[in-house]
Structure formats: C-alpha cells, structure tokens
Automatic annotation (TrEMBL), chain A:
Region (Disordered): 262-282
Principal location class: membrane
Membrane topology, as annotated: Peripheral membrane protein
Gene Ontology CC entries for this record: plasma membrane
GO molecular function: ATP binding; ATP hydrolysis activity
Domain of life according to the entry: Bacteria
SUPFAM superfamilies hit by this protein: P-loop containing nucleoside triphosphate hydrolases
Domain ABC transporter: from-to ranges: 7-253
Gene of this entry: ddpD_1
Stated name of the protein: Putative D,D-dipeptide transport ATP-binding protein DdpD
UniProtKB/TrEMBL annotation, chain B:
Protein source organism: Pseudoprimorskyibacter insulae
PANTHER family in the cross-refs: D,D-DIPEPTIDE TRANSPORT ATP-BINDING PROTEIN DDPF-RELATED, TRANSPORT ATP-BINDING PROTEIN
Protein name: Oligopeptide transport ATP-binding protein OppF
UniProt keyword annotation of Ligase present: no
Database matches in InterPro entries: AAA+_ATPase (IPR003593), ABC_transp_ATP-bind (IPR050319), ABC_transporter-like_ATP-bd (IPR003439), ABC_transporter-like_CS (IPR017871), P-loop_NTPase (IPR027417)
Domain ABC transporter, chain residue ranges per copy: 4-237
Transmembrane parts of this sequence: none
Taxonomic lineage: Bacteria, Pseudomonadati, Pseudomonadota, Alphaproteobacteria, Rhodobacterales
Keyword line: ATP-binding, Nucleotide-binding, Transport
TrEMBL record, chain C:
Source taxonomy: Bacteria, Pseudomonadati, Pseudomonadota, Alphaproteobacteria, Rhodobacterales
GO cellular component, one term: plasma membrane
UniProt xrefs under Pfam families: BPD_transp_1, OppC_N
Membrane protein topology class: Multi-pass membrane protein
Membrane-traversing stretches: 36-56, 97-125, 137-155, 161-177, 216-242, 262-284
Swiss-Prot/TrEMBL keywords: Cell membrane, Membrane, Peptide transport, Protein transport, Transmembrane, Transmembrane helix, Transport
Entry similarity comment: Belongs to the binding-protein-dependent transport system permease family. OppBC subfamily.
Domain named ABC transmembrane type-1: residues: 95-284
Major localisation: membrane
Localisation: Cell membrane
Protein name: Putative D,D-dipeptide transport system permease protein DdpC
Source species, domain of life: Bacteria
Length: 282, 249, 299
C-alpha cells in the first residue's frame, strides 16, 4: 500500500494569529492510497490540520519541515498554483452541505460549474457529466435532483451532491471533515459506503476527520489520535482496541455500547503529560 | 415519582402535520427514550408537553393531572427540561448565580444561597462557579449548569432533549453518569430524546421509535439486540446502528 | 478553558466585571484614532458645558451695541454678533443646550424604542402588527417635517423641540429592537426561562433587553448626529430654542443675514455642530466594532 506517498507531512505546526499557543503542533504523517482517520475531541486541531493542508488559513502561521503533496510543495506553492491544485487534485468535504452549497442556485448547476472550472467542457457536456456523477453517488432520478435547490434536498442527499462535486475531477486526495456528523445513522452509513466505494475504486487517498471512533474504526485503514494539537498515537484501525495511550483508551471506554453494562461509564482522567511532545508519530 | 402519559398529541405548523396522534406512557421513575430521524418531531413532543408550544390538541397527564389545567407555577415545579445545545441554552450575559437564582426568586423560595450551592454540588461543579459566566465554561460544564437549573425547583419529571449530542464522548460519559446518579438519588422520571441508540440502550428501559410525526413502535431496551422489532423503520434504524458499531462487538 | 479567563473569573464579582467591561470598551475606543476623536469631542463638550461660567469671558446675553459684528480678535475670540454679543461665550453656553437636548432625547427615545420593539418582537402576532403599524406611520414622514408639524402644533420652544425630536427618533430604535428580539425569541435560554415560570415582562426585562442593548446603544449614538442636526434645523427655522438663547442652530439662523460680510457669525456655530455630530457618528462606528466580539478578534 505504501509505494510513493501522496502526501508527506513532517512536523506541521499551526499558530493562529492572536492565539496564545499553537493549535496544531508537530504533526507528522504520510498518506498513500489509503484511508487515514484523524480523531480527537473538539478543539484538538483536526480541522486545522485539514485546512492547513488545503492552504485555507490565511491568517495563521503555518510551519512544517516538509509538506509535500505529490509534486507540489504545499509550503512554498504560490496561491495561483494552489488554485489549480485545490478542488482539482485535492478536495475537501465539509460537515454540513447546507453551508457549502449556494442556496440560490440549482444543485446540478453547481456540480456542473465545479467541473467546468477545472476542465474545458461545453455546458451540455458538463451537465451530462454532472448527472453521471449524481448517478454514481446513488441518487435516484439524477435528472430531477439536478434541478432542485439546496433547501429542497435532505441532508444525506446534500452530502451526496457534495461528494459528487468533489470527485468530479478525479482528485488524488480527499479531505473529509466530519462528513456525516450532521446525518442520521441510517443515512450516515449509506453516505459513508458511497464515499468508501468511490475512494477505493479510484485509488484516492482519503483523510477522514471525525470525532467518532466507531466511524474511523470501520471506514479507515489507519488512525491518528489527536489531543490538544498533538498526535498522541497512530494505529492501524483494526488495532484500535489494542491502543496503548491512556487517552485513546479513555475515549474508547467512555463510549456507551449497545448491550454494554449499565455501570457508570469510565470517565476520562486527563493527564497534563499528554500535551508534552513524545515520539508517537509514524 | 410521577408517571407521564401523552394522549393523542397532534400539532400542525402551517399546513404540515408535525405530530400525528402521538400517544405514549412513561412509568414513574422510568427512563423512556425517543429515537428517530431528525425532523421526525422528537423535540416537538417535549416542547408541546411542557407547554412551550400552545397550539396542539390531545392531552398530557403528569401524575394524573393534565398539564393544561395545572397552574403554570405548579407546572414548573413538576417538570423541567434540559436542552440539546449547551451553548444556546444559557443566557450569554447571565452568570451562573443569576441563572440559578432566577427560578428561586420567581417562586419566592428562601435560602437561596444554600440551595444554589447544593445544586452545583449535585451536578459536580465547584461552588466557586457561581460567579462565572457561560463563556468561561466548557461545553460539559455548561450542560451541568443547565442541569442544575433544571434541578433547582426540585421537579419530578425531567425532559432531556439530546442532552449529550453536542458534547464529546468523554464529556458525554460524565453527563450520562450524572443523569443516572441523579435518577438513582432523586427518583426522577426521564423522557429522553437521542439519535444515538447506544445512549438510549445505556440509559433507558424502554424507547419509542419515531418517523415523520408518528411513533412506529415502542420497544424494550432488549429489543435492540433481540431483533424483536417489527416495524420496518425500527428494524432499519436498529440494523444501521448495530452495523455502525459492529467492530466493537 | 483559557487560563486567563479562569483567573479573571476568580477575582471578578458581578459588579466589577461590569465596570471592567465598560473600561475595556473605552480603552478600545481610545485606541482607534477615529473613535478616539469622538470620545475627546464628547468629553470636551461635557467639560465645556460644566465649566461654562468659568470658560466664557462674557455673558452670552450681554449686548454691546457699540461693538457689533466685530471680527475675531483678542477681546472677542470668535468675534461678536449683530447685537455685539461674544460668539465664543454663546458657543460655550450653547454646549449646555446641545447636551441637554442629547441627554433628554436619549432618555426618552431609548426606553420607548426598546419597550415598543421588544414587546412587539416578543409577543408577535397582533401586538406586533399594531405596534409596528404605528411605528411605520412615524417612519413614513421625514423626521424634520414631522418635528416641524409637532412644534407647530405645540408652539415653538426648546422643550417642545425636544419632545418633537423624541417623538420622531424612537421608531428606528423600535424597529431595530424588534428585529433583534425576533432572533433571540426562539433561543433555548428563553424557553428555559419560560419553563421556570418567568412572566413575559420578566423575560423581556431580564433576558431580552440585555441582548438588545448593545445594538440599541450603537444606534442611539449614531442617531445623535441626526438629533443634533434636527435640533439645529429647528433652531434655524425659529421653531426650537427662542432668540436670546445661545442655541447653535438659532445662532446660524440669525447670523445668516450678515453672512456675506461677517463670516464668523455662521462659521463657528457651524463648525461646532459639524464637530459634535461627526464625533457621535465616529463614536457609534467605534462602538459597533467594540461591542462585536467577532470584529474584535479580527483586528
Ligand atoms: N480562526 C481561528 N482563530 C483562532 N483560533 C482558532 C481558529 N480556528 C480554530 N481555532 C482554535 O484552534 C483549535 C483547534 O480547532 P479545530 O481545528 O477547529 O478543532 P477540531 O476540528 O478538532 O474540533 C481550537 O482550540 C480553536 O479554538
Ligand atoms: N416552531 C416551528 N415552526 C414550524 N415548524 C416547526 C417548528 N418546530 C418544529 N417544526 C418542524 O417540525 C418538524 C419536527 O421538528 P423537531 O421536533 O425539532 O424534530 P426532531 O427533534 O425530531 O429532530 C421539523 O420538520 C420542523 O421543521
Ligand atoms: Mg472540526
Ligand atoms: Mg430535536
């Protein structure tokens, strides 16, 4: 699985302007054509890592020893270069489709336009491609959905449209930031399944950002666990139950389980030493 | 302490029927769950039953007494609610002291200082937190304050509207433990909304599955693993939740 | 939580926290040149009004028919008017009148606007419709014309001008307070207050008014510029402060006749009006930034 990595990040540190301390510190990982999960509590810096990779943090100080995406040096690339990369070769899926889709334009037109910004195509071609993509994310009657406005589609449908839009240009890297947190369990599984199939078929590298251990366990190959801006542990998803770090173990234990005992749930006891640097990165 | 019976609750907003003849009964001291997809009307049930919404038909009996005929002041002392979003349910310009003192002042209850301290102790917060403002508290601490506010009038019934879904698992565990301990100590009747079957399974004795304004099935806790659910949507929901958790088994 | 926040909360009690907040706002305002100008002018206005008898070299009413229409000189800093009165002294005493107008209008308009707006917004339905239609009627006249009508009906005098201005200045405040209230009305903390048995009056007073107050304050400050101009306009038209009173607008009105030869008659009161209304505009803008936490972070 690890031929040449798609993404190589060494010691990524992000310091927001005005914040007393860096929000992300010394994060290192490599990503091949695999699915990497980033989990942690809210505020642990997961989204910041994603946004730093997309270079979407104009006001923050981003430093790293190395931040290489295929042939692009993400640290040094000009904004012009990033415009060609972002959305075409690496894309991002956000939590709530309601905020990512333009409310006054038809969903299908937005997908078609996303295609036309990166690929030269006539309107008719873009429309055909958009409908094909809507079909690929298992939307029934894609022609009908093409003409709907964002407020007329459900959350699950909206998220599928977002996925269709992201995968149009066959990117090599997709960053999904809590893609299903706003969805119901039943819909969540369908959306994850679609994303998973497409990513596997096309051999895309996926970074799945989530606070949900069950999700990364089932839909990722590898997992980084973040605490207060640092990666405290990196594991294969299958070995999540064998996690060593007390933070990971605490998170796992705090999760109520169907059919579990009804004893009080073990509460995470935080240890200040977790915020100290340590050699947990890969 | 007091059972809750909901009879034929129906409400429309504009042209759409949001709740359609919903009936359920919760035994006294029971924790009863409500699950279902978002927009199915779970929060609306709680808001109608607590008379936050007025234009509904049907009736809700708490301890045999209709919430409609109850004196509003009396009703506050019988039922209280904890809301989903701890960031939206505390007034941003009220200190914890104000939050807790208001209900005592409204109801003319004495020994305010002692009661406020006891409420904070009950929810596991240090007494010094009385002088804090919401922006100085974390999400879990805010939710504890919201619970303290619900407790301070010593109600019999607590409505919990997704009390932990805005919180991290680690904090969720603390709040669930707290809710469980309070029920053991004070014998509350809980009506709890959640979208997470694992939380329902951990907390509740029975639960109702809702879809588009209807209760499709009322199930005991064991039905999640038994596979005894009959309604198709209940089966789908349970199936999806189990698949989602599968690796944990 | 932040360490600094937990520290401040340990030392802070209810009252000092309030004062600390106001202090923070003032320091924020003082740091930006534009709002600092506003603060300085306002402070100066208050100071001048308080110390008018000391500052003014002459009585504002003392006529000196030997020395009419004198240009600015050492004896008469800003010159004299057509009756030989010292313009500088009149301006200094005029600050008192301006300040009175501002103060009275604020304490009338703020509460009325807040009351109408929050009540309409909180109750909605028919109450809202009636209150807002009344507001619309007031809003559909230009404020100067409406004040003119009121003063014409009540008879010209400074007090009537203040009443007339107040009557025309509250509708925008009410509109604003209503719009704000509608956004807070469905918040969970309002629902929680209702579940605790709080009466509508209590909810409006304790929960909604504090949330509306910042934007109403900003709006009031910005409105002050208009109020000062309307007062000056009424004075100019002879419907506000009556002749011997050193009201700035009235001074321009009487000076108008001699304007071509004696520029100082209208220039200095005009500059005073300009400065004060500009100061309030800048102060309002600064206040908007100071009270908006999102904007604070961006800076
Ligand atoms: N624009 C910003 N300016 C300053 N601090 C920020 C900003 N965005 C996020 N942060 C801080 O960075 C930390 C990590 O945030 P985030 O990456 O959003 O966490 P997560 O996605 O894991 O919940 C938090 O402590 C947050 O307060
Ligand atoms: N005050 C209201 N006005 C109009 N529609 C409402 C109102 N409250 C709820 N609804 C509608 O009722 C439905 C059920 O909402 P809700 O009870 O909040 O769902 P749940 O809590 O199960 O997610 C939704 O479709 C929502 O749009
Ligand atoms: Mg995030
Ligand atoms: Mg709800």
């Amino acid at each position: 699985m690890n031929q040449s990595p798609i993404l190589d990040v060494q010691n990524l540190t992000v310091h927001y302007g005005g914040a007393p301390a860096p929000s992300v510190q010394d994060v290192s990982f490599q990503l091949g054509r695999e699915r990497l999960g980033i989990v942690g509590e809210s505020g642990s810096g997961k989204s910041t890592v994603g946004r730093a990779l997309m270079r979407l943090l104009p006001s923050a100080r981003v430093t790293a020893d190395r931040m290489q995406f295929e042939d692009v040096d993400l640290l040094g690339a000009s904004e012009r270069k990033m415009l060609a990369v972002r959305g075409a070769r690496m894309s991002m899926i956000l939590q709530d489709p309601k905020f990512s889709l333009n409310p006054i334009r038809r969903c299908g037109d937005q997908v078609a336009e996303a295609y036309r910004t990166h690929v030269r195509a006539s309107k008719a071609e873009a429309r055909a491609k958009a409908i094909a993509m809507l079909d690929a994310v298992q939307i029934r009657e894609p022609e009908r959905v093409y003409d709907l406005y964002p407020h007329e589609v459900s959350g699950g449908m909206g998220q599928r449209i977002m996925i269709a839009m992201m995968l149009l240009t066959s990117p090599d890297l997709v960053i999904a930031d809590e893609p299903t947190s706003a969805l119901d369990v039943t819909v969540r599984l369908q959306v994850l399944k679609i994303l998973d199939d497409l990513v596997r078929e096309q051999g895309i590298g996926l970074i799945m950002i989530s606070h949900d251990l069950n999700l990364v366990r089932n839909f990722c190959d590898r997992v980084l666990i973040m605490y207060a801006g640092r990666v405290v542990e990196a594991l294969n998803a299958a070995d999540l139950d064998k996690a060593q770090h007390p933070y990971t173990r605490g998170l796992l234990a705090a999760q109520p389980r169907i059919g579990g005992s009804r004893q009080p749930l073990p509460v995470l006891a935080r240890d200040p030493s977790w915020t100290q640097p340590q050699g947990a990165a890969l | 302490m007091k059972p809750v019976v909901i009879q034929d609750m129906t409400i429309r907003f504009g042209g759409t029927t949001v709740l359609n003849d919903v009936s359920l009964s919760v035994a006294s001291g029971e924790c009863f769950g409500l699950v279902g997809e978002s927009g199915s009307g779970k929060s609306t049930i709680l808001r109608c039953a607590s008379m936050l919404y007025k234009g509904w038909t049907g009736d809700v009996l708490i301890g045999g007494q209709s919430v409609r005929s109850m004196d509003p002041m009396e009703r506050c002392r019988v039922l209280q609610m904890v809301f989903q979003d701890p960031y939206g349910s505390l007034h941003p310009r009220h200190s914890v002291r104000t939050v807790l003192a208001e209900p005592l002042r409204i109801h003319g209850i004495g020994e305010q200082e002692a009661r406020m301290r006891q409420a904070l102790i009950d929810v596991g917060l240090p007494v010094e937190f009385l002088d804090r403002y919401p922006h100085q508290l974390s999400g879990g601490q805010r939710q504890r304050v919201a619970i303290a506010r619900a407790l301070i009038l010593e109600p019999d019934v607590l409505f919990l509207d997704e009390p932990t879904s805005a919180l991290d698992v680690s904090v969720q565990a603390e709040i669930l433990n707290l809710l469980q301990r309070l029920r053991d100590e004070k014998g509350f009747t809980y009506l709890m909304v959640s979208h997470d079957l694992a939380v329902i399974d951990h907390m509740c004795d029975r639960f109702a599955v809702m879809k588009t304004g209807d209760i499709v099935e009322v199930l005991p806790r064991d039905a999640i693993l038994d596979g005894t659910a009959k309604a198709p949507y209940a089966q789908e929901l349970i199936g999806a939740s189990l698949t989602y958790e599968q690796a944990a088994m | 939580m932040d360490q600094s926040q937990s520290l401040s909360s340990q030392t802070g009690r209810t009252r000092p926290q309030w004062m600390q907040a106001s202090l923070n706002i003032v320091t924020y305002l003082a740091r930006k040149p534009t709002s600092a100008f506003g603060l300085v002018v306002l402070a100066l206005l208050i100071l001048v009004a308080l110390t008018a008898p000391i500052l003014a070299p002459h009585s504002p009413y003392a006529q000196d028919l030997q020395n009419t229409l004198q240009p600015p000189s050492m004896g008469h800093l800003f010159g004299t008017d057509e009756l030989g009165r010292d313009i500088f002294s009149r301006l200094v005493y005029g600050a008192r009148i301006t300040l009175t107008i501002i103060f009275l209008v604020t304490i009338v308009v703020g509460p009325i606007g807040l009351f109408v707006g929050t009540v309409a917004g909180y109750f909605g339905g028919r109450v809202d419709m009636i209150l807002m239609r009344i507001t619309d009627i007031f809003l559909s006249f230009p404020s100067l014309i409406l004040s003119l009508a009121f003063v014409a009906a009540l008879g010209p005098s400074l007090n009537n001008a203040i009443i007339a201005i107040s009557l025309t200045a509250w509708p925008p405040i009410a509109r604003l307070a209503r719009a704000e209230t509608m956004t807070f009305r469905s918040a969970d903390y309002i629902a929680a207050a209702r579940l605790q048995g709080a009466s509508p009056a209590r909810i409006i007073w304790r929960s909604i008014v504090p949330m509306c107050l910042p934007s109403v304050l900003i709006r009031l400050t910005l409105n002050m510029a208009t109020v000062i101009l309307t007062a000056a306009g009424l004075g100019f038209l002879g419907l506000g402060a009556q002749p011997p009173m050193p009201e700035w607008g009235a001074m321009i009105a009487t000076g108008r006749r001699y304007m071509i030869d004696s520029w100082w008659l209208v220039t200095f009161p005009g500059l005073a009006i300009l400065c004060v209304s500009l100061a309030f505009n800048l102060l309002g803008d600064g206040l908007r930034d100071a009270l908006d936490p999102k904007q604070m972070n961006r800076r």
